């Protein structure tokens, strides 16, 4: 927070007139802000040095050193809070003031008292404490690696890993401080330092809770119990929690609570003069921006004229393939759980029947989307695409047919799932019985109706045509039928019907009291609602693409960039949503990995009734005797 007041707001120029006010331009406000900023930085790095020393003492030193450390802990903490005053008192004595040179930037200048330079103090403290922490961490690593007895307490070693990660971030920050001090007159270098420092400082101050959550079992247990609203006694591991909570966690959270909006958006217009600097207009900085822009937009530019696939295409292709393969395995595992006789007792409802069909359609849609669109459009397999059998004939026709048939079936099945939620949650039982009887005809309709929308592809045929350095799937229009119009009508219609069903269910949930049984169905509705949002986004993209296909190439390029990721999200997220929303499915997954036995609700009721009958019979026999 103080760093924001010291650097982010003044540098933005948004409140330039405010900083020119006499009551704020000079006096105690800028002096106090500058003092607290330097004081907090010193206290932060001193505390990290103590945490590193704590790890060395706890892991590798005899117990008497640990007892001595615990005994003097409060005095050490007081020293951490007092020593920075010796390095910052001159700021209070000399004072500070806001300076606003043209055109629109403000910053705080301190009046040097006795010629003391803050930059020199910061450099010395950063280098000395960095070297000390490095030696302490090196000693800890040596003891852990060289002697097996120090590797017994794995919990403490994991907390040392946390400390080492935070130290690495502080080391990067210290390196930037050193560069700023030694190359202060180099404008190009200082521009890079000023650009990187806010992000490094954010990582340094805001990453500690996440590292603690990853490395500490005790902290994860406390977090889990806190989220479950259960009281528990904290388990302090060698006073590490006290060290962390004193300064880095609590203080850093306050120091950087609002520490990121201004410098994060280069195109916001707040730093126009900075970006007009010749050293910034060319070189490393615009190269990074162009790479990011090319990654997200230009990789799918239909006017590409390169002769070979770009590096970003390789990265994009293999990244998508990397997360798709585990999702395919997750889908197969989900279908197995829902279909296995061992677990099928809990998944005989109409929802899970439709969900299995939806899962198979999602998986098929994703696979054939890769074969028909992703792989040819990546440009990585042009030599394969040039083979006549693959370029034209039955193979591209079948792929193109399935790439439209499966999405149509997917949309219809999703509408049926939304309708299922409406029937089960909001309508009377007689409609549920009617729905159960008509379930299989509806599933046949899901598989048959899309043929009416795709038969012309089989008759007209399809082929792969080269566009620049990539291949694109295309088809011969039979009878002037346009797939884009069919897809638009189907997507918008399915989204509209699902929207009506979801609104009706939401109104029912809000106006009626929910029971434990209905809450189970409502959680599955929330899963359906999340998937609906993804399908609705796809429908909007289809609409925009259809409207702008001939007049706005930039918009079409953006849609082509976003659409594969939305397809992945729509096709690959269902098992994750099911795992989050369905208690029976989570129980089945747990039983699969633990080889436990699943007891259906009906069996548990029968078992309870048998126990009651047996107890009554035993009581009667005891009375007769």
Automatic annotation (TrEMBL):
InterPro entries (UniProt xref): 7TM_GPCR_serpentine_rcpt_Srg
Name of protein: Serpentine receptor class gamma
Organism placement in taxonomy: Eukaryota, Metazoa, Ecdysozoa, Nematoda, Chromadorea
GO biological-process terms attached to the record: sensory perception of chemical stimulus
Main location group: membrane
Gene Ontology terms: cellular component: membrane
Transmembrane segments: 32-54, 75-99, 119-145, 157-176, 188-213, 274-295, 315-338, 397-419, 439-464, 484-510, 522-547
Record family assignment: Belongs to the nematode receptor-like protein srg family.
Keywords, comma-separated and alphabetical: Membrane, Transmembrane, Transmembrane helix
Membrane topology: Multi-pass membrane protein
GO molecular function, one term: transmembrane signaling receptor activity
Protein's cellular compartments: Membrane
């Amino acid at each position: 927070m103080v760093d924001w007041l010291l650097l982010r707001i003044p540098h933005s120029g948004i409140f330039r007139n405010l900083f020119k006010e006499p009551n704020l331009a000079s006096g105690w406000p800028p002096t106090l802000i500058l003092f607290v900023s330097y004081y907090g930085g010193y206290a932060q790095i001193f505390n990290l040095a103590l945490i590193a020393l704590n790890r060395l003492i706890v892991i590798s030193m005899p117990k008497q050193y640990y007892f001595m450390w615990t005994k003097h802990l409060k005095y050490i903490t007081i020293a951490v809070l007092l020593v920075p005053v010796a390095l910052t008192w001159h700021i209070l004595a000399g004072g500070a003031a806001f300076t606003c040179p043209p055109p629109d930037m403000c910053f705080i200048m301190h009046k040097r008292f006795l010629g003391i330079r803050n930059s020199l103090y910061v450099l010395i403290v950063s280098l000395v404490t960095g070297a000390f922490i490095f030696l302490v961490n090196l000693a800890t690593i040596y003891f852990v690696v060289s002697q097996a007895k120090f590797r017994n307490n794995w919990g403490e070693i994991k907390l040392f890993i946390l400390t080492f990660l935070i130290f690495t971030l502080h080391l990067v920050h210290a390196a930037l401080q050193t560069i700023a001090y030694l190359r202060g007159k180099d404008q190009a270098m200082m521009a890079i330092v000023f650009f990187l420092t806010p992000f490094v400082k954010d990582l340094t101050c805001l990453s500690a809770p996440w590292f603690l959550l990853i490395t500490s079992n005790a902290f994860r247990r406390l977090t889990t119990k806190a989220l479950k609203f259960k009281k528990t006694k904290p388990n302090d591991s060698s006073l590490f929690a006290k060290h962390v909570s004193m300064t880095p966690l609590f203080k850093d959270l306050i120091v950087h609570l609002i520490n990121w909006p201004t410098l994060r958006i280069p195109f916001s217009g707040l730093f126009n003069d900075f970006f007009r600097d010749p050293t910034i207009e060319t070189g490393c900085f615009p190269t990074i921006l162009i790479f990011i822009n090319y990654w997200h937009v230009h990789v799918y530019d239909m006017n590409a004229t390169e002769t070979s696939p770009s590096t970003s295409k390789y990265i994009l292709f293999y990244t998508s393939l990397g997360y798709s393969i585990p999702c395919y395995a997750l889908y197969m595992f989900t279908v197995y759980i829902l279909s296995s006789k061992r677990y099928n007792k809990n998944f005989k409802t109409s929802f899970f029947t439709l969900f299995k069909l939806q899962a198979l359609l999602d998986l098929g849609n994703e696979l054939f989307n890769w074969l028909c669109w992703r792989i040819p459009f990546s440009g990585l397999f042009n030599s394969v695409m040039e083979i006549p059998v693959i370029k034209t004939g039955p193979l591209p026709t079948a792929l193109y047919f399935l790439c439209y048939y499966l999405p149509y079936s997917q949309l219809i099945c999703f509408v049926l799932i939304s309708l299922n939620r409406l029937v089960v949650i909001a309508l009377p039982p007689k409609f549920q019985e009617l729905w159960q009887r008509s379930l299989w005809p509806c599933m046949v309709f899901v598989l048959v109706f899309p043929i009416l929308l795709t038969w012309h592809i089989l008759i007209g045929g399809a082929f792969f045509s080269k566009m620049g350095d990539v291949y694109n799937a295309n088809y011969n229009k039979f009878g002037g039928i346009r797939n884009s119009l069919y897809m638009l009508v189907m997507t918008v219609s399915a989204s509209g019907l699902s929207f009506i069903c979801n609104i009706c269910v939401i109104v029912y949930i809000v106006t009626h009291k929910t029971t434990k049984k209905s809450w189970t169905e409502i959680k599955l509705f929330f899963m359906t609602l999340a998937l609906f949002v993804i399908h609705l986004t796809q429908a909007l993209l289809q609409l925009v693409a259809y409207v702008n296909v001939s007049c706005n190439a930039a918009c079409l390029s953006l849609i082509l960039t976003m659409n594969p990721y939305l397809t992945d999200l729509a096709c690959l997220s269902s098992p994750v949503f099911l795992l989050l929303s369905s208690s029976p499915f989570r129980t089945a997954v747990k039983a699969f990995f633990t080889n436990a036995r699943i007891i259906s609700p009906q069996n548990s009721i029968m078992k309870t009734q048998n126990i009651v009958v047996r107890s009554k019979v035993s009581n009667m026999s005891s009375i007769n005797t």
